[in-house]
Design brief:
Elements: E1 5-9, H1 22-26, E2 32-35, E3 38-41, H2 54-58, E4 64-68
Antiparallel strand pairs: 1-4, 2-3
Bound molecules: iron/sulfur cluster (2 copies).
Pfam family, one: Fer4_10
InterPro entries: 4Fe4S_Fe-S-bd
Domain 4Fe-4S ferredoxin-type: 5-37, 40-69
Length: 74
Amino acid sequence: MSEFIRVEIDSRKCVGIKECGECIGACPVNIFGKKGDHPVIIQKNQDECTLCDLCVEACNPDAIAIKKLYENNL
Ligand code: SF4
Ligand code: SF4
């Protein structure tokens, strides 16, 4: 379970891996995996996120959100 960062994919906006899959190649720390035609978040890798936003920029339908959980405690 991630303590600091949560990466979320909005499945209503995501067009699927066959049509896109850009997030999987974009992330330098392998946070995106595959399940069938859907990208999934590899939970145990989430705190490796560098907040580089490459996945967000690669996702044309704007389906990815990076939540900074640590900011909730400020
Ligand atoms: S980049 Fe966005 S639309 Fe493309 S597979 Fe990933 S989450 Fe889905
Ligand atoms: S912000 Fe960067 S490190 Fe974090 S999930 Fe997206 S591509 Fe990966």
